[in-house]
Design a protein that fits this description.
By secondary structure, the protein is an all-alpha fold. The protein is 64% helix and 0% strand.
Length: 98
């Protein structure tokens, strides 16, 4: 399912970014990123909850005006999982949500 894989990818890549930043600056992760993502892991195994978490994430990104952050992760995800690219998607489960 696209939404589950995408959310897992965002969590993974963001945590990697936090780790790198923490090593470089000896600083704690930024609040707004952790606030956006902290509930997602609990919702990944349930399809309905994952879809709702995905929609909330998109809404929060618009609210916080950090669309570029999400788009950068979407591009990275689609590079890592090309089967979810629009030209490769087949059926509703693989539909790319933009």
């Amino acid at each position: 399912m696209y939404e589950q894989q995408f959310l897992a990818y965002i969590l993974y890549s963001t945590l990697v970014q936090f780790r790198a930043q923490g090593l470089e600056t000896n600083d704690k992760p930024l609040f707004w990123i952790s606030d956006l993502l902290h509930n997602i892991p609990l919702q990944l195994l349930d399809e309905d909850k994952s879809k709702a978490a995905f929609e909330r994430l998109e809404a929060n990104v618009r609210t916080y005006e950090i669309d570029k952050w999400l788009e950068d992760h979407r591009k990275g995800f689609l590079m890592s999982f090309p089967e979810y690219r629009p030209e490769n998607a087949a059926g509703e489960d693989n539909e790319v949500v933009s």
